[in-house]
Amino acid sequence: MTRIAIGSDHAGYQLKRHVVERLEGLGHDVLDLGTDSEEPVDYPVYCAAVGRAVVAGDAALGIVLGGSGQGEQLAANK
User: Fold this and answer.
1) Are 4 and 60 in contact, with CB atoms under 8 Å apart?
2) What b/e string do you get for 28-64 counting C-beta neighbours within 10 Å, with b at 16 or more?
3) Cα-flanking dihedrals φ and ψ of residue 8, to 5°?
4) Range from 31-35, 39-43, 44-48, 68-72 carrying the lowest mean pLDDT
5) pLDDT digits over 2-43, tens only?
6) What is the DSSP letter of 42?
7) SS3 2
8) Which of 14, 38, 67, 72 could form an S-S bond across to 47 if both were Cys, CB 3.0 to 4.6 Å?
9) At what angle do helices 70-77 and 43-56 cross, to 10 degrees?
């Protein structure tokens, strides 16, 4: 079992829900760092939290999702 951190903005929320369900179905421990709805939000808060969780050792892997994926991956990698 791998602990995986995941975060998204509002545009990636539905896909995040699907990915979380699939990962948990495969036996992984998922650390869902938000967002929790399709209400508009700024992605850096959620995606940076995923990066921090991996750096801190709270998760072995991180997944970030959003409308384009461009800014989301930058926020997670900073």
Assistant:
1) yes
2) bebbbbbbeeeeebebeebbbbbbbbbeeeebeebbb
3) -155, 165
4) 68-72
5) 999 999 999 999 999 999 999 999 999 999 999 999 999 999
6) -
7) coil
8) 72
9) 40
Strand 3-8 and strand 29-32: the pairing is parallel
Mean pLDDT of 44-70: 93
Distance CA 13, CA 30 (A): 15
Quick one: tokens of 50?
């995923």
Q: Which two tokens stand for residue 32?
A: 């869902």
Residue type, 37: S
